[in-house]
Specification:
36% of the residues lie in helices and 0% in strands. It is built from 2 helices and no strands.
């Protein structure tokens, strides 16, 4: 059985400017989405699973 050769090189950091705050929100989200795509493993929860976990958190109310 022949194994496939692959390589990985992350250039995403070069796309992020020094002044991150100046980026439009849509661009920030796109960069984060690209990062998520690069770092996905079989153990990463799906978006639905994350939302289920958040929904199932007990309500915490603070009285000051």
């Amino acid at each position: 059985m022949e194994s496939k050769k692959w390589s990985y090189w992350n250039f995403l950091s070069e796309l992020i400017p020094e002044d991150v705050e100046a980026l439009p929100d849509i661009q920030k989200l796109k960069l984060l989405h690209q990062w998520d795509e690069l770092t996905v493993t079989k153990n990463v929860q799906s978006i639905a699973a994350k939302l289920h976990n958040i929904r199932d958190l007990p309500h915490v109310g603070l009285q000051l």
